[in-house]
């Protein structure tokens, strides 16, 4: 929201009434957030969420030394996925003295030097005390602009969630179709549009297993709690369908792609990727050099919102072929975040680009 009378940054708020002058504020922009977990064991979740974002807010606590291991890993992940619009938030400034805030600020500056976030603004705030929230909103407005999306192309949606909205014991007349959640990357989506979902569902016939795309129709679209008649790229959507809700319950379609039938990328059970490995492992307390990828090694791979495990069937210095435990729908040129099992945790080690 934005106050028409107050100067910047005081004009920015999330309230319908300006806290400074009492003027009625005007709706200026709608922003969707995905809370990426900081815990190291949830790195795959963070990578999947980051794939659908236009920018990132890196939250660093002023009462902790910077960087924490997971902060290093998250910043490297943003670089690998290609997110360059970043705002750094120095939170909890109400818990420490001024000298500690300045010391922590200098730690942050040193940490981001030479990274994708080197020129990102650092906004000191207190979420609890509502300090500098207007400055933070102004930074989001200036540093993470709404990108120009390609709405003249066929609709394509990355699925980040899927669920069954029906309550236990609902009658047949009350049952609603399954819902998919995510974001449009291009095109326009409307109720009544036909959708294809890839890779789809696994079907076994006479001992032969294959993945079959799912076909359905859009029944409704919600942006937050608001029902809309048309959706364009940007922001998070919940798309109602006529699918059997057993197909969508429990995030079972997470990582798949939905779009206009016949326009989605191929389903890949294996692919060759060009490798760009990091020099050292991030997210661990000790420094550790990253060794070359080897044949028969299992890797965790994140492509878009999909997370799968791939076993390396062939490896050369700058290239690897992987066979996937679960197929993905991905185009040539797609970026792949690569993680390796280190000390019983999946650790980010580099990025790949699908070649074939």
From TrEMBL:
Question: What's a GO cellular component annotated to this UniProt protein?
Answer: cytosol
Indicate the enzyme's highest-level EC class. hydrolase
Q: What domain of life does the UniProt record list for this protein's source?
A: Archaea
Key words of the record: GTP-binding, Hydrolase, Initiation factor, Metal-binding, Nucleotide-binding, Protein biosynthesis
List the GO molecular function terms: GTP binding; GTPase activity; metal ion binding; translation initiation factor activity; tRNA binding
Can you supply a Gene Ontology BP term from the record?
formation of translation preinitiation complex
Q: Which cofactor does it need?
A: Mg(2+)
The enzyme's E.C. designation? 3.6.5.3
Q: Where is the Tr-type G domain?
A: 1-148
InterPro entries noted in UniProt: eIF2G, eIF2g_C, eIF2g_dom_2, P-loop_NTPase, T_Tr_GTP-bd_dom, TIF2_gsu, Transl_B-barrel_sf, Transl_elong_EF1A/Init_IF2_C
Entry's Pfam families? eIF2_C, GTP_EFTU
- Asked whether the UniProt record includes Nucleotide-binding among its keywords, one would answer yes
Quickly give the catalysed reaction. GTP + H2O = GDP + phosphate + H(+)
- The protein here is known as protein-synthesizing GTPase
The top of its lineage is:
Archaea, Methanobacteriati, Methanobacteriota, Stenosarchaea group, Methanomicrobia
